[in-house]
Design goal:
With 201 residues, the protein is mainly alpha-helical. It has helices at 5-25, 31-54, 62-83, 88-107, 114-139, 148-168, 176-199. Helix content is 79%, strand content 0%. The relative contact order is 0.14.
Length: 201
């Protein structure tokens, strides 16, 4: 499917917001969250630029699944490190192990549904962390109400990941053309929610 000019503009805006977040929006955080958020938003920036340059066809590459896993894992690790002090080591092990598991099951042929199962578990835990943790913190008064927008971003990244995962598995929830049509807008809305949520945290 050919990418339209509006799609390219939406992806460019997504990349600019991600670049702003890396350059300015995470200065006040501790070292590991800064590294994690920089990696997550940096991958989002590069992904947006590659989509603009190479089109939707790049999503057919197996490497996309591996690299895109870095976005939710990095963001979830940053949040867990900031707000779940007792679980820092456990979540760091999960993030590294989850990324390695997804990578190995994509590079080495694995039997049956192991690759899909591994991807679903990794993305599921990371996505729930990004969605639930900010909402809980905002609702209990531990963080400012605007921080809940990070949870909204987590929900949107979960929707996007779900659509692409089922598409890659050959069982798309929506037609391929529909997914590609809504993906640029979904990425922009997700990034806006993340940036706004961190800004108002």
């Amino acid at each position: 499917m050919k990418m339209s000019l509006p799609d390219r503009i939406l992806l460019l805006l997504t990349g600019l917001l991600a670049a702003w977040q890396v350059a300015i929006g995470i200065d006040a955080f501790d070292t590991l969250p800064v590294i994690a958020y920089t990696l997550g938003f940096g991958v989002l920036l590069v992904a947006g630029l590659l989509l603009i340059i190479l089109g939707f066809e790049i999503l057919d590459s197996p490497a996309v699944v591996i690299v895109s896993t870095l976005i939710p894992l990095s963001l979830a690790l940053g949040l867990a490190w900031q707000y779940l002090e007792a679980c820092r080591a456990v979540y760091l092990v999960f993030a590294i192990g989850g990324f390695l598991a997804v990578t190995l099951t994509r590079l080495i042929p694995a039997p049956g549904r192991i690759p899909v199962f591994t991807l679903a578990i990794t993305h599921g835990i990371a996505g729930l962390t990004i969605f639930l943790l900010p909402v809980i913190l905002a609702s209990t008064g531990t963080a400012r109400p605007g921080f809940a927008l990070v949870g909204l971003g987590g929900a949107l990244i979960g929707v996007g990941g779900l659509l692409l995962s089922f598409l890659k598995a050959g069982k798309p929830i929506l037609p391929r053309e529909t997914i590609f049509r809504i993906l640029p807008g979904l990425l922009l809305l997700m990034t806006v929610a993340f940036v706004a949520g961190f800004f108002f945290s």
